[in-house]
């Protein structure tokens, strides 16, 4: 609660500052026919996109020297709430269609990436985890995401599909928290996204399982109609959907939709 | 207490009164926002769910035990800081407040690195005694005590430094040992400071989120305290989160107000 509020305040202050900076320059939104983009594009993106979108932002700025991309990374549901409460954002990239649906004033969302679950174990697999059935073992320390967050909902779906009842020791508040428990060796295994395993490959090993296909997570992106920089927003979304954008996302472990 | 404050209000200069009222509004308006947003019609049905009571009970038990631990360790620590002639006491005092400055999530990671299954001390606890603190109720208490103890230490140390040392000296000249002096002279004279510190400590422990969820994880009935339940409810149903927050606020205000009245008025 506390952290959430602090985050929202920070995000609001940061975006306000940046938006006001952007307004000093001639805004692209007022003149859509301008060939070169300028001003700030504020992107609210799911936490799991932190690595790939930071890279995409740099590439986008390099391709459009007048433009600047500012990110606010957080859980998708928090971002959806911030947007609906009036946080100034131009683009929203969500880790779940459900959170995209919660946002009211937006363009048509497009699915730009898919993510699947993978078993993450500490380097060297000290708990001798071989597959999903180990998640039912009382003697193994297991972390899952809470059912309220997308990775937890996906995990629930998978376990239902294979008719197993997992015995978790902790239901983590987001996928990064579950991953932290694995990388510190506090749990023997956790169910996280493939992209998370790849991002932490120095500290965790991944074990793929065939049933992961039963809970594919889709990532939608949309421009926000109340944003200050409509041209910049559209250009950024187009860039994410372009071949260059796809290449960055694939390198991070996402699948093309 | 209320009688005394009423008689002094008339003499309060405007230059103090205005910012005081502004400060009060600043603290209370978010609370009013929470109350205004509450789904009053469905509130009773949401309140009487088993999860709410489990989380509330766990919160109260953990915060209380954490406060007791803080009292046991914190009062002697405050005494050491206030009365012990230690080299580098200033630095030590600053270090004691580290948990106040540290983002609680970082505090939780630090606890994992020390007391976790692979932690500096935790690996031995696990190997020798089979004790593993993460993901247990004991882990919640450890996380809360870590974050809340500085509030108690600072408050008690302030009281110790303000207390008149001549009473202790008099007791010593009458032949009392230092332990007897501490128990019979020092402790009673700093009691208001101890109570105030304990109250702050308990309140901080009750609202603890970051260190708890990082160190102890989240599992209903075992480590899901009210703040954790609020956070997760916010993911799906903000209305439930508001209800849970109000319950937590109500309980803490009632407990704190009654405790303060009873203890502090009795001591004056």
TrEMBL record, chain A:
Subcellular localization(s) per the UniProt record: Cell membrane
Cell membrane among keywords: yes
InterPro entries, alphabetized: ModA, ModA/WtpA
Membrane topology category: Lipid-anchor
Binding locations of molybdate: 48, 76, 175, 193
GO molecular function: metal ion binding; molybdate ion binding
BP-aspect Gene Ontology terms: molybdate ion transport
Transmembrane helix recorded as keyword: no
Main location group: membrane
Pfam family membership, one: SBP_bac_11
Keywords recorded for this protein, A-Z: Cell membrane, Membrane, Metal-binding, Molybdenum, Signal, Transport, Tungsten
Cleavable signal peptide: 1-22
Listed GO CC annotations: plasma membrane
Family annotation (NCBIfam families): modA
Role description: Involved in the transport of molybdenum into the cell. Part of the binding-protein-dependent transport system ModABCD.
Membership in a protein family: Belongs to the bacterial solute-binding protein ModA family.
Subunit architecture: The complex is composed of two ATP-binding proteins (ModC), two transmembrane proteins (ModB) and a solute-binding protein (ModA).
Protein name as annotated: Molybdate-binding protein ModA
TrEMBL record, chain B:
UniProt entry keywords in alphabetical sequence: Cell membrane, Membrane, Molybdenum, Transmembrane, Transmembrane helix, Transport
Gene Ontology CC annotations of this record: plasma membrane
Record-annotated membrane-spanning stretches: 12-36, 56-82, 94-115, 127-156, 185-205, 240-259
Any one Pfam family match given in the protein's UniProt record, by short name: BPD_transp_1
InterPro entries reported for this sequence: MetI-like, MetI-like_sf, ModB_ABC, NifC_ABC_porter
Keyword Protease (UniProt): no
Organism: Kribbella sandramycini
Top-level lineage group: Bacteria
Subcellular localization(s) per the UniProt record: Cell membrane
Topology of this chain in the membrane: Multi-pass membrane protein
Role this protein plays: Part of the binding-protein-dependent transport system for molybdenum; probably responsible for the translocation of the substrate across the membrane.
GO molecular function: molybdate ion transmembrane transporter activity
Protein name, per record: Molybdenum transport system permease
Family: Belongs to the binding-protein-dependent transport system permease family. CysTW subfamily.
NCBIfam families, per the entry: Mo_ABC_porter, modB_ABC
Signal peptide positions (record): none
Occurrences of domain ABC transmembrane type-1 (ranges): 56-259
Gene: modB
């Amino acid at each position: 609660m506390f952290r959430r509020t602090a985050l929202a305040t920070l995000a609001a202050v940061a975006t306000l500052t940046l938006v006001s900076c952007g307004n000093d320059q001639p805004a692209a939104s007022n003149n859509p026919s301008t060939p070169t983009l300028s001003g700030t594009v504020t992107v609210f993106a799911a936490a799991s996109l932190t690595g790939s979108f930071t890279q995409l932002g740099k590439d986008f700025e390099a391709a459009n020297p007048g433009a600047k991309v500012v990110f606010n990374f957080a859980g998708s549901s928090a971002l959806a709430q911030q947007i609906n409460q009036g946080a100034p954002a131009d683009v929203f990239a969500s880790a779940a269609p459900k959170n995209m649906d919660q946002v009211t004033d937006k363009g048509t969302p497009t699915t730009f990436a898919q993510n699947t679950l993978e078993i993450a174990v500490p380097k060297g697999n000290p708990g001798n985890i071989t597959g999903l059935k180990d998640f039912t073992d009382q003697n193994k320390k297991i972390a899952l995401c809470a059912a309220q967050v997308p990775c937890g909902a996906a995990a629930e779906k998978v376990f239902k599909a294979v008719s197993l009842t997992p015995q978790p020791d902790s239901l983590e508040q987001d996928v990064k928290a579950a991953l932290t428990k694995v990388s510190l060796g506090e749990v023997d295994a956790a169910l996280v996204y493939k992209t998370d395993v790849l991002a932490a490959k120095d500290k965790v090993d991944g074990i793929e399982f065939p049933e992961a296909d039963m809970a594919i997570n889709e990532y939608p992106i949309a421009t926000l109609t109340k944003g200050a920089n409509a041209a910049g927003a559209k250009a950024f979304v187009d860039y994410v959907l372009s071949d260059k954008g796809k290449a960055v996302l694939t390198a991070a472990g996402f699948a093309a939709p | 207490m209320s009688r005394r404050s009423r008689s002094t209000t008339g003499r309060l200069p405007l230059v103090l009164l205005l910012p005081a009222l502004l400060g009060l509004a600043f603290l209370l308006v978010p609370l009013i926002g929470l109350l205004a947003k509450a789904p009053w019609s469905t509130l009773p049905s949401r309140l009487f769910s088993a999860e709410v009571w489990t989380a509330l009970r766990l919160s109260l038990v953990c915060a209380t035990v954490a406060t007791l631990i803080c009292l046991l360790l914190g009062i002697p620590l405050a005494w050491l800081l206030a009365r012990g002639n230690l080299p580098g006491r200033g630095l030590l005092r600053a270090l004691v407040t580290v948990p106040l400055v540290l983002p609680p999530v970082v505090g939780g990671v630090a606890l994992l690195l020390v007391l976790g299954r692979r932690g500096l001390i935790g690996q031995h606890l696990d190997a020798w005694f089979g004790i593993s603190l993460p993901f247990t109720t004991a882990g919640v208490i450890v996380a809360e005590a870590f974050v809340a103890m500085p509030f108690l230490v600072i408050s008690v140390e302030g009281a110790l430094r303000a207390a008149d040392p001549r009473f202790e000296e008099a007791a010593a000249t009458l032949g009392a040992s230092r332990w007897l002096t501490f128990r019979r002279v020092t402790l009673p004279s700093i009691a208001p400071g101890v109570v105030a510190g304990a109250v702050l400590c308990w309140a901080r422990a009750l609202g603890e989120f970051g260190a708890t969820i990082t160190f102890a994880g989240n599992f209903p009935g075992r480590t899901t305290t009210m703040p954790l339940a609020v956070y997760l409810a916010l993911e799906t149903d903000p209305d439930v989160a508001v209800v849970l927050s109000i319950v937590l606020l109500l309980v803490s205000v009632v407990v704190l107000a009654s405790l303060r009245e009873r203890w502090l008025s009795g001591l004056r």
